[in-house]
Amino acid sequence: MNAINEKLEARERERRPVRVGLIGAGQMGQEIIAQVGEMVGMDVVAVTDLTLERARFGYTFSARQKPVVDARDPAEAGRAIREGRWVVGTDWRIVTDNPEVEAVIDATGSPQQGADISQAAIRDRKHIVMMNVECDITVGAALRRQADAAGVVYTLASGDEPAAVLELWRFARALGFEVVAAGKGKNNPLDFYATPATLMEKARARDMSARMLCEFVDGSKTMVEMCAVANATGLVPDRRGMHGAKCNVKDLQHVFVPRKDGGILEKAGCVDFAIGDVNPGVFLIVTTANQRLRDGLAQRDMGPGPYYNLFRPFHLCSCEVPLTVARAVFYGESSGHPMDRPVAECFPMAKRDLKRGEVLDAIGETCYRGSIDLAKVARAERL
Asked: Whole domain around residue 247: which residue ranges?
C-alpha cells in the first residue's frame, strides 16, 4: 500500500489513469473532484447528482479541464469518456453501469440510494467506495458479502473518522497490542435537542446546511460513525450512547480505560468519543503486558503505561478518499469494512414528545436523534 504514489505515477506514464465515477456532487463530492485534479494517475470521469447543474459545477473545482458533456445512459457516457470528455448526468446508472469506470464513490448520504448504487456497482464488477456511513451501518455487511462474491472491494472511505480509526486499529492489532478503546473527537458541543432552526446562524457562518450541522451537534453523526467502527472491529459501546467524556488529548489514556484503573469504562474493548481538543483527531488506547515493551514505550515518550494513546491528529474527509480508490484498484484492499455480523446498532431517540400517527422527519431535523447500543440489546428491545 505504501507505493500508491508509484502506482499512480505508472498509470500516468501509461496514459491509463484510474477511472472514477462519483455519485453526489455536494461539498464532499466537490472536494474529491478538486483533490483528484491535483493528482496524477487518476481521473473522475463521470459525476452524477440530483441536479445536473451541481454535477457540472463540481468539475469547475478541478485544476485540470476537459470538455464536459451531458449523458442520458451508460452507453452514451462510455463513448464520451473514450473520446476524452468528462460526463455529467442525473441518473447514477451512467456511473455504475459504465464500462469505462473502475471504481464508484457513493457520496449521497442516503441509505436506500446507497444500497441501490452499491448493488448495481457490484453487479457490474466495480469497486464501491462508501462515504455513505449511514448506508454502511444499515446494510454494509450484506454489501460486503456481495462484493466479496463478485471479486471486487467494498470499502469505507479514507478521511472520514471511521476509516481513520480503523487505520490505527489495524496498526495496533498487527503489532499485537490489546485495544482498550477507540474513539474520535467531537467538533462541537453536544446538544441532544438541537434543531435546524436553533443552528441557522452557525450553519450560515460555516457555509453548510442547518440540517447537516444539526446532525453533528445532536450527536447523530458521531453515533453512526462509531457504530461503523464497532461493526468493523468488534469493539462495542460501553453503554447506550457511549460516554462522550469531556477531556483533552493528554488525558485520553487516563479516561478511556477501565474503572479499576481510574477510568470510566466498565470493560476494555469499547468505542467512544471525547469532547475537548481531540477534534479533528481520532485515537486508540492500547496496552501490553510485556514489560520490555512497556519500558521501550516509556523511553519513546508514550508515558509510563500501562495504557498508551495512539493519536492521529487529523482526518481530511474528502481529500483522503482517492487513497481508498487507489488501494482498492491496485491492491484489492479496503480502508475498512464491516464484519459478517454487527455488534452495535444505531436507532432513533425522540427529541420531543411525538404524537401517535405523526410523520417523522429526517435525521438532523426536529423529531429524533441517533443513539447507539449493543446490537443484541437493540434487537431484544426492538429499537
From this structure: 161-317
Bridge-based pairing state of the strands 103-106 and 18-23: parallel
State the cell numbers at 193.
435537542
Question: How far is it, in rounded angstroms, from Cα 323 to Cα 17?
Answer: 14
| Among the listed residues 50, 264, 279, 102, the one whose alpha carbon sits nearest the alpha carbon of residue 187 | 279
Question: Could you tell me if 49 and 126 lie in one domain?
Answer: yes
Same domain for 12 and 41, yes or no, is yes
Both 138 and 255 in a single domain? no
pLDDT of residue 197: 95
Between the CA atoms of 287, 293, 297 and 300, what dihedral angle is there, to the nearest 10 degrees?
-160
**Residue 374: inside a domain, yes or no?**
no
Burial of 318 (0-12, 13-18, 19+ CB in 10 A): buried
Residue 363 lies in a domain: no
Q: With respect to residue 140, please indicate whether it lies within any of the assigned structural domains.
A: yes
> Do residues 246 and 284 share a domain?
yes
CA 347 to chain centre: 18
Q: How many domains does the chain have?
A: 2
* 88 is a domain residue: yes
Task: Give residue-wise pLDDT tens across range 137-195.
Answer: 999 999 999 999 999 999 999 999 999 999 999 999 999 999 999 999 997 889 999 99
Q: Is 75 strand, coil or helix?
A: helix
What distance lies between CA 133 and its chain's CA centroid? 5
Predicted confidence at residue 1, as pLDDT, reads 55
State the Rg of the chain over Cα.
Answer: 21
Q: Average pLDDT of each block of 10 consecutive residues along the chain (383 residues)?
A: 90 98 96 98 98 97 97 96 98 98 96 97 99 97 98 98 98 99 92 95 90 94 98 99 97 98 98 97 98 98 98 97 98 98 97 95 95 98 94
The CA-based angle 293-290-302, given to 5 degrees, is: 40
Dihedral sign for Cα atoms in the order 201, 225, 164, 95: negative
- Domain boundary at 331, 360, 376, which? 331
Same domain, 234 and 166: yes
The DSSP H or E segment spanning 173 is: helix 161-174
DSSP state at residue 234 = -
- Residue 133 sits in the same domain as residue 165: no
